[in-house]
Amino acid sequence: MDKKNFSRPIDIKNIKVTDSFWHSFQETVRREVIPYQWEALNDRVEGAAPSFCMHNFRAAARLMAEKKSQPDFQEPAYAYRGFETLPQDSGHPEPDKFYGFVFQDSDFYKWVEAAAYSLSSHPDKELEATVDEAIDLVCAAQHDTGYLDTYYILNGMDCAFTNLKDHHELYCLGHLVEAAVAYYQATGKDKLLGAACRYADYVDSRFGPEPGKRKGYPGHEIAEMALVRLYQATGEEKYLKLGKFFVDERGASPNYFLVEDRERAAREGRPAPGEDIASYSYYQADRPVREQEEAVGHAVRAGYLYSGMADVARLTQDEELFTACRRLWDEIVREKLYITGGVGGTVHGEAFSYPFDLPNDTAYSETCAAIALAFFARRMLEAEPKGEYGDVMELAMYNTVLSGMALDGRSFFYVNPLEVNPAACHADARLRHVKPVRQPWFGCACCPPNIARIVGSAASYAFTENESTLFTHLYMGAELTARNGLGLTLESRLPWEGWARMTVHTARPGGYTLAFRVPGWCRAPRFIGPEGIGQIQKDGYVYFTGEWKDGDTVTIELPMDIRLMGANPRVREDIGQAAVTCGPFCYCLEQADNGPDLHLCRVDANALGSARAGETIISGQSVSMLELPGFRQELAPAGPLYGEYAPAKESPVTLRFIPYYAWANRGEGEMRVWVRV
Ligand code: FUB
Ligand code: ZN
Fold first, then answer.
1. CA distance from start to end of the chain
2. Whole-angstrom Cα distance, residue 423 to residue 214?
3. Ligand 2 ion: Cβ-proximal residues, 5 Å cutoff
4. pTM value?
């Protein structure tokens, strides 16, 4: 790590996204997703699994009000023992009871965060009033210690923090902090920030390296990176220290989760569990993070942890920790990344599978895991600008993150397969997790609000800056003001055409560097800057440094070829097949364009030169469509199951590919990314 390369995302209040692609998603989030999710959090979406999220805050606020008004108030004694997924009760909830998953509070925090980003670019008094009112409710639910998790407030505080491994209290803290900082930065209002600081302070009083404090850390990471964000927003070093403690303590010996499991067993009169440290790899807690060599376990947890590690490594200039980040990054990219930017190949534990196990039809590839990968990538970029981080961030954001949401913003994917046969999804229990169409909501609704918050803050992935340099990682059309007051306009025809131009607006010429990512997908990039401005290329970025004058431009030409990509032959699933990419997009075949039985299709790899790019309209939106020459094997009307081998009879066809993010917007049908060649 070289400190002079460090950068931070540009404040999204200093950016106006003009990019037609991203602006349209942000508008969908603003117009559809944020209001829809508010209804969902309040259990008002017909046909959707109830959330009970706001119900829980209301119940906890009522309980806290009773507590304040009655001097002899007895807090509830813990009502549930051990780990349980609470019933998704679709009847009439009892007003004082907690419903939903233990982390249900986090859905509200993610919604506030998304609302905050939307308010930053699009003030909306009505939305802000709704958020303020809900924040009042959440603050009323906060325990007088500062603790804020409705599951334990309602079920009994005597067992708070006794199951960090599975009960998500520190995960909810993390999301509370992310929301509170975003809302404060968007509106200047600090009520939620105050609640977040009080909860963080309470956690800080209970956990840490000091004698007498517990040596615990989150069972589901996110608090690490959130505490770093809180430190950056408040300047309070204790939050950075707590985030660092959580990172450093993870997996240390004696293993906290084992200690905790045994204490819980003793309290509940159960036999002590045996020592199975390896099982904590699901939580990335089987060994200290600096010793971890392979991305393992639950993929969202892992991505959030690695993001926190990268943050802490940069801010504390911890080379050893950053080396671990690099190692984990390399391992993911080398062995565990889908061509769609998804990660976490197996449904078992929503987890990373073993190296090169990247199944297409049973893929898990949770939307949140792709979001977590984008978080990790951006933090690696903040520490060292290298094109490969930007390439993966772009891949995740333009493909699996966006495929998590329907183009109309009204339904969502949790799981993002690379091959779907709806008949199999309906008949095969092994594919129970794979839905051929997006769902209106989920009992475990982590993904939809996560999409809303990353789409709303997409500009902070596109540009980062430091005192001397503005980095363009994604070519997202925007008008922005750099920290030194320099005005910049990025016009961009990406992701559809490889052309962009950055124009400088300044009253006073001055020295500055503009750095641009050279996308890995581009074979012949050209960067044309003004005379007198020096140009160098390093680690996948082109740097223009010099005295900029008003009106100076850098023109960026990134020809987008239609490419046929093959997988490493160790990926057994993809052998003999190719995937089509063009620019940042991975493409797929859909039944709606190509008919059923997509497994019979074959791309003509020798005729790629006659591939054509066009467009089609899906869900009222213009989407690119690639036409490639190929073949379709004929299906004998009713042949026997087996017969003597004979070369397949094939007919020439034109195969029509659409970007992966746009699949499943035309009803139920087959889809596949990898196609025979
Ligand atoms: O545990 C909280 C969230 O629910 C995780 O991030 C998702 O993978 C889902 O399990
Ligand atoms: Zn999710």
1. 43
2. 51
3. 366, 368, 446-447
4. 0.97
